[in-house]
Amino acid sequence: MNKIIIAIDGFSSTGKSTVAKQLANYLGYIYVDTGAMYRAVTLYAMQKGLINKDDFNKEALIYQLPNINISFKFNEEKGFAEVYLNDKNVEKAIRTLEVSGFVSQVATLLEVRQKLVEQQHKMGKDKGIVMDGRDIGTVVFPEAELKLFMTASAEIRAKRRYEELIKRGDKISYEDVLKNVKERDFMDSNRKDSPLVKSKDAIEIDNSKLTLEEQFNKILQLAKMAI
Ligand code: C5P
């Protein structure tokens, strides 16, 4: 069967990764969560003390970029690839609200984007890939055969993310999650390099009122037509 590239972009917490994983499993494709890569770089910066509440030492992070190795390993039990930072599994550590609070600043750095986009290109060179992020259909794979742009209201997205974090045992408030979602939307849409914009040829999916099953079926139909 012909293998294609499926690019899924959209605002934070729109459920991109959920549908991307479902689709990749169904089609036997590789799934790549590019947000996890930006989060892993952010975690590295936090661990090295390069970023904290009042200060972000951008030059030091750029200087240390060659020391940052991000990889993915498939977890059979979970059914998707988990992210590793310098060979350490950081899948859980990158999902905190603290990392979410800094990641969009890290993602504005051109040098960080260049490094990660280069790696993303390599991962998609044989096609058969579902990649989600903010710039996949516009910058990483403008030639992708299927491009989706996911949206939902900020309140609905924050509620979903809040429930996810509470389930994990995090102690946070819904208001803080909503604030973070709105801040990231703003920063991601307004940055100079590779801002979050809907590619002209992307199909917009507003999933505010769709169940996971309805969303999956709709997107699977689109994928089948594109293959
Ligand atoms: O997808 P997720 O919400 O985990 O992404 C975290 C952050 O990483 C985004 O808010 C954005 O700032 C950045 N990002 C990006 N480009 C991508 C993927 C994520 O700038 N392709």
What does this structure look like?
With 227 residues, this protein is of the alpha/beta class. Helix content is 48%, strand content 19%. The chain is built from nine helices and ten strands. The protein has helices spanning 16-27, 34-47, 58-64, 97-106, 110-123, 136-140, 154-167, 174-190, 212-226, and strands at 5-10, 30-33, 51-52, 55-56, 70-75, 80-85, 88-89, 129-133, 146-151, 203-206. It has a five-stranded parallel sheet with strand order 2-8-1-9-10. It has a three-stranded antiparallel sheet with strand order 5-6-7, covered by helices on one side. Strand 6 and strand 7 form a beta hairpin. Helix 1 packs across helix 9 and helix 2 (34-47) packs across helix 5 (110-123). The longest helix has 17 residues, at 174-190. It is globular and about 50 Å long. It starts with a strand and ends with a helix. The model has no long low-confidence stretch (mean pLDDT 96). The structure holds cytidine-5'-monophosphate. Cytidine-5'-monophosphate (C5P) is lined by residues 12, 34-35, 38-39, 103-104, 107, 133-135, 184, 188. This is Cytidylate kinase. Keywords: ATP-binding, Cytoplasm, Kinase, Nucleotide-binding, Transferase. It is found in: Cytoplasm. It comes from Litoribaculum gwangyangense. Its EC number is 2.7.4.25.
